[in-house]
UniProtKB/TrEMBL annotation:
<keyword id="KW-0413">Isomerase</keyword>
<dbReference type="InterPro" id="IPR002130">
    <property type="entry name" value="Cyclophilin-type_PPIase_dom"/>
</dbReference>
<dbReference type="GO" id="GO:0003755">
    <property type="term" value="F:peptidyl-prolyl cis-trans isomerase activity"/>
</dbReference>
<feature type="region of interest" description="Disordered">
    <location>
        <begin position="28"/>
        <end position="68"/>
    </location>
</feature>
<feature type="region of interest" description="Disordered">
    <location>
        <begin position="203"/>
        <end position="222"/>
    </location>
</feature>
<feature type="signal peptide">
    <location>
        <begin position="1"/>
        <end position="23"/>
    </location>
</feature>
<comment type="similarity">
    <text>Belongs to the cyclophilin-type PPIase family.</text>
</comment>
<dbReference type="Pfam" id="PF00160">
    <property type="entry name" value="Pro_isomerase"/>
</dbReference>
<protein>
    <recommendedName>
        <fullName>Peptidyl-prolyl cis-trans isomerase</fullName>
        <ecNumber>5.2.1.8</ecNumber>
    </recommendedName>
</protein>
<dbReference type="InterPro" id="IPR029000">
    <property type="entry name" value="Cyclophilin-like_dom_sf"/>
</dbReference>
<keyword id="KW-0697">Rotamase</keyword>
<dbReference type="InterPro" id="IPR044666">
    <property type="entry name" value="Cyclophilin_A-like"/>
</dbReference>
<keyword id="KW-0732">Signal</keyword>
<feature type="domain" description="PPIase cyclophilin-type">
    <location>
        <begin position="73"/>
        <end position="221"/>
    </location>
</feature>
<comment type="function">
    <text>PPIases accelerate the folding of proteins. It catalyzes the cis-trans isomerization of proline imidic peptide bonds in oligopeptides.</text>
</comment>
Length: 222
């Protein structure tokens, strides 16, 4: 049964989305070992695939407390989000590293679902749904994850295959606890995505490219 949130193209998708621990060497979010910031170790091994856009892997040391507010600037307006380091430090570390390196710049949100589940999926510079940063990282899940309106979560192609793709839930969606929830977007962002969803999907189906193109111009910490 196709997984509506897989990193694979919709016609080939198989269930999955995830997160857990992380690690790399040269990412832009490195933490000074002498600082008082609480940290955890992460692992970001190569996934054996070429990067959709060239970036360095994140730092293998990630802050593991506190929230980070970010702005996802898009062609349909700014989407404000809050990322949670307490429960998903390695995911947040990767997301911020990619943002700092401009990985998301000029990247389309390639997938919208309007039936069964209600999400906008982004984060693949190729715009076809199978691109990533050239590394992967583990799930950060506790098995109780739910996906209410406003959820920000990672997409993947199976357990522990997180990369760069993520999705925004614009209406309560019933999904297995397989997708790492690393933050949430605010009410204004939900409304913006809802407005895109009301215009439908290319081809008139319930799963595909949004009729109103959504392109990320940048992602930045506030």
């Amino acid at each position: 049964m196709p997984n509506p949130l897989s990193l694979l193209p919709a016609a080939l998708a198989v269930a999955a989305l995830a997160l857990t621990s992380c690690g790399g060497d040269d990412g832009s979010t490195a933490v000074d070992a002498g600082s008082d910031v609480s940290t955890t170790s992460c692992d970001y091994p190569s996934d054996g695939q070429p990067a959709a856009k060239q970036v360095d892997p994140p730092s293998s040391t990630a802050p593991d407390t506190g929230d980070v507010d970010v702005t996802i600037s898009t062609s349909v307006g700014d989407l404000k989000a809050t990322l949670g380091r307490d429960t998903t430090p390695c995911t947040v570390n990767s997301f911020l590293s990619l943002a700092d390196q401009g990985y998301f710049d000029d990247t389309p949100c390639h997938r919208l679902t309007t039936a069964g589940i209600f999400v906008l999926q982004c984060g693949d510079p190729t715009g076809v749904g199978n691109g990533g940063p050239g590394y992967s990282f583990a799930d950060e899940l506790d098995g109780t994850e739910t996906y209410p309106t406003g959820t920000l979560a990672m997409a993947n192609a199976g357990p522990d295959t997180n990369g760069s793709q993520f999705f925004i839930v614009y209406a309560d969606s019933s999904l297995p606890a397989s997708y790492t929830v690393f933050g949430h977007v605010d009410d204004a962002a939900v409304k913006t995505v809802e407005d895109v969803a009301k215009k439908g999907v290319v081809g008139g189906q319930g799963d595909g490219a949004p009729k109103e193109a959504v392109t990320i111009s940048s992602v930045s910490a506030d």
